[in-house]
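## retry 2 of 3
previous attempt timed out at serialization; input unchanged, resubmitting
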Amino acid sequence: MRFATVAAAVCLSLLATLRAQSTDVPGTAAGAPTTVVAGTPGAASPASDAAAKHAKRTACLKDAKARKLVGADKTAFLKTCIAAP
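## retry succeeded, writing output
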């Protein structure tokens, strides 16, 4: 029982320390990844590009489920939906 209490205390203190370090960066939320974008100004960062693709895919999958598509019909729909701008 004592070991569990000590282990929990150590984990909580480490968590608090890591959380405090992540909030030291100005302009970021706690736990949010910081992204440094090199290259041309106005270019989308790789993280936001991946997030946009994920959001698009999730929306297309939801739409396919709402339409009750399965098999080849679902695959064809997803290809056209994800490729659309």
